[in-house]
Amino acid sequence: MLDHLGEDAASKSLTSAFESALADGIATPDLKGSATTAEFASEVLSRLK
């Protein structure tokens, strides 16, 4: 969606943040993890800073 809006840098930052969280084993149950959606979102946000 961010790409579609022309926000390429923001898109890359967000993608990197959630891929990093997933690589560290932080995932929601639908991705075989145990984090809640709020926990995952919080982790992604912390990686954006």
Rg over CA atoms, rounded to whole Å, is 11 Å
- Low-confidence parts lasting 5 or more residues at pLDDT below 50? none
Biggest sheet layout: none
N-end to C-end Cα span:
21 Å
Got a strand count?
0
Number of distinct helices: 2
Which band does the percent of strand residues land in? under 5%
> What is the H/E order?
HH
Protein name: Isocitrate dehydrogenase
Organism: Arthrobacter parietis
What does the model show?
The chain is 57% helix and 0% strand. The protein has 49 residues and is mostly helical. It has one domain (8-48). Helix 1 packs across helix 2. The longest helix is centred in the first third of the chain and has 16 residues, at 8-23. The two termini are 21 Å apart. The relative contact order is 0.16. This is Isocitrate dehydrogenase. It comes from Arthrobacter parietis.
Please provide a brief summary of the model.
This is Isocitrate dehydrogenase. The chain has 49 residues and is mainly alpha-helical. Helix content is 57%, strand content 0%.
What are the key terms here?
elongated, mainly alpha, 49 residues
Write the layout of secondary structure elements.
Blueprint: H1 8-23, H2 37-48
Helix pairs in contact: 1-2
